[in-house]
Amino acid sequence: MSELNGLIDQMVLDIGTQVFQLDDQRLRMFLNWLAAHSGSMKVLAGNVFDMDIAVLRGTDLQEGFKSALKTWLESLPAQGMLWEYRTISFEIAWWRNLDPVRLKMIVESETG
Question: What is the reported pTM?
Fold first, then answer.
C-alpha cells in the first residue's frame, strides 16, 4: 500500500506543479473545469471567477488543492485514479497550449 501512497503523492505533486504554472486566465478556467468534472474537487474550486488572483496563487489555496486532490485520488480504485490523473494532465496541457484567441473567446463566453 505504501507504493500506492507514493504514487499518489507523486501524482499530486506533478499535477499541483503543472496547475500553478498556468497563467491567471488559464488557471481560473482549469479550476472551473475541474469543479465541473469532479464533485469532490468542486468544494475546493467552486466558482473561481469571483476570486482575487492573489487568492488563487496563495499558498493556502495551493495546499488545499493538493490536499483535496490527494483525498479524491485516494478514494478511487487504482484504474480510476490512473484515468483521472491522465485526464487531468491532458486538460492542463490543453489549457496551457490553447491559442490565445480561442482562450479569449472561451473566457468571454463563460463570463458574458
Answer: 0.84
Are 41 and 34 contacting, i.e. CB atoms less than 8 angstroms apart?
A: yes
Contact yes or no for 15/92 (Cβ under 8 A) = yes
What gap in Å lies between CA 2 and CA 68, rounded to an integer?
Answer: 19
Element (H, E) at 75: none
Contact 38, 72 (CB under 8 A): yes
Residue type, 95: W
Taking the C-alpha atoms of residue 8 and residue 30, their distance in angstroms, rounded to an integer, is 20
Q: Residue 71 to residues 1, 33, 84: CA-CA distances in angstroms?
A: 15, 18, 13
Q: Render pLDDT for 37-76 as a digit per residue (tens, 0 to 9).
A: 887 776 655 555 456 666 667 777 788 888 889 999 999 9
- What residues have CB less than 8 Å from 86, skipping those under 6 apart? none
* CA angle at 19 for the pair 18 and 20, rounded to the nearest 5°: 95
- Sequence-separated (6 or more) residues with CB below 8 Å from residue 17: none
